[in-house]
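Ex. 9. Protein: MFS transporter.
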Amino acid sequence: MSPHVPASTPAAVPAVRPALVLLGVLALAVNLRAALAAYPPLLETVRDELGISSGAAGLVQAGAVLMMAAGSFVGPALGVRFGRKPALGGAVGLVALGSAVRGWAVLPALIGGSLLLGLGIGVAGVLLTGVVKNHLGSRAGAATGGYVVAMMMGATVSSAVTVPVAVALGGWSFSLAIWTVPAVLAVAVWTPIARRIGRPDRAEARSGLPWRTGFARLVAAYQAGTSLMFYGWLTWLAPYYEGQGWRPERAGLLLAVWSVAQIPAALLAPAMAERRRRWRFWAGFTLACGVAGTLGALLLPQPPVVGPWLWAALMGIGVGAGFPLGLTVIAWRTPDGSTSAATSGLALGVGYTVAGLGPLLMGLLIDATGYPAAIVVLLLAGAVQGVAIWRIGDRPATDDEASSRAERRSA
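Predicted structure tokens for MFS transporter:
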């Protein structure tokens, strides 16, 4: 999962009703995780039919996430070059194309299609938040929460139905290709809305990535940790429990529980942190939930009575709150939209890059030593995130002077 604070503010009232813009945004957002979440429940089936290793299977998801990082870095430039709204539709069109390519049951098509949809998701994630800021500005918080939930719901449905759909259609590739349909429908819904909205302002404040800013580096470390935990479990949670003797259908439902637990965490944790300005507490608390679930899955994979469903829910709370809390603290600690956009771009780009390498590294470790070493990688990611949380601390959104002092101390 990836939104960030955009750099510009609208100069004119949009030509369409905000509710219609929101409808288009939600239709697009549903497609920004569903195709990614469709692959992990089928991973063991893909390995068996294509005769590939765990490392090669992990490379598919790693490549998609790395392309998301590339898309995050180039998305703002594409929005300026082609217009944010047309580029957004084109990005989701790439998701549709990549999903269609994955309908061919050969390894090159699986990898190539995954790269295409990853690039589309990365570009769309950057541009989507700019549309929300410019055309739903009076309700930007609610709109952002709405499309994050739409992303999560798409992933949840995908995780739950991908194996039954593969059985019904007679092949794993058909189950991956079916996500072309909602992406095409979303583009069809969005295109007339984008035409009525019109092109964005010609001049937009932009700045380079703040690599030398201590706060930006801390937030990048935070996003790297939460992103690695998210994509690591997204890729390997279902296969891990298939290795424990679970049927693929049941393992897919476990992944769905993991996804469902993210929704209330994503909605409530940032709101609670903002209400009392206790970002460090809520970021630390939700991280502790995620680490507890990960440790439980490692040390006691199938506890009596509750089974691993509790572990999946705790992991979901951790990663569900982690991403929006990272965006929240960026909004608090940056003085203007341009700085927020640059900081978010750095944090998300670094986060996706690290997360993209995580599933591949885990797959290689699984091939070499088994799952325990791979799960330790996720625990190390949680440790990095915890250090970043402690260093970032709490700071009021409006206290720019204090924020600058904190950044100088962190540098």
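Check your answer against this statement. The chain has two domains: 16-198, 210-411.
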